[in-house]
Amino acid sequence: EPEVTQTPSHQVTQMGQEVILRCVPISNHLYFYWYRQILGQKVEFLVSFYNNEISEKSEIFDDQFSVERPDGSNFTLKIRSTKLEDSAMYFCASRSFRQTDNQPQHFGDGTRLSIL
Amino acid sequence: DAKTTQPTSMDCAEGRAANLPCNHSTISGNEYVYWYRQIHSQGPQYIIHGLKNNETNEMASLIITEDRKSSTLILPHATLRDTAVYYCIVRVPHAGGTSYGKLTFGQGTILTVHP
Fold it and tell me: Is the separation of the CB atoms in A50 and B100 below 8 Å?
């Protein structure tokens, strides 16, 4: 069964450094998402992406964050200057499109980001 | 999207059916009910979803009350591997709203399956 894959599984970065998290969504999907989960807390929505542009973003997704679909397969989340509070699990998800638009999102297994 | 209420935790014996309730009394007519689970900080795993009819797949069954104000996820023969946090999420379709499909996760129900 097709899967969403994320790399790396664990990323350790110094505070203030840039980090790029990578995702390969399921191949025929058209909607892409990033979520994060701080240890012990709820899964939180960050951003949705469709037709090569951001369609919705949360308050968490400030100017330090950006997303890109650089080619036909990858979907990336960049954090420009990381802070300690960015330490979390980051999940990518994708969804196909149908007219009824009730298709579920499918998630990857996440990247654990640790900021030192 | 409508708010959901779930019990904080539940226990189930291995091999028995696990029935996880969810209350979504403010659900509107075009909102779907989705169930996901998360096993030990892995990514949320899609289980099942429905609008008003009961649904069944290889993982579970979803029973939605006639007034759609509550639903129950049924794992017919729970195993130890079903121990996880289960999330009930109500979402309006993109075509009917502006959410573009984002999911709003609550705290979910911690299901513990005992031998």
Answer: yes
Tell me whether B101 touches chain A (CB under 8 Å).
Answer: yes
Q: Which are the contacts of B9, defined by CB distance < 8 A and separation ≥ 6?
A: B109, B110, B111, B112
Tallying the residues shown for chain A, one arrives at 116
Q: Contacts of residue A48 in chain B, CB cutoff 8 Å?
A: 100-102
Nearest to A34 by CA among A61, A10, A1: A61
Strand order in the sheet with B18-23: B18-23, B70-75, B61-64, B55-56
Which chain A residue shows the shortest CA-CA distance from B92?
Answer: A102
Q: How far is B58 from chain A (nearest CA, A)?
A: 14
Q: Are B11 and B19 in contact (CB under 8 A)?
A: no
For residue range B22-71, what is the model confidence (pLDDT) as tens digits? 999 999 888 899 999 999 879 999 999 999 989 999 999 999 999 999 99
Of B43, B100, B106, nearest to A50 by CB-CB distance is B100
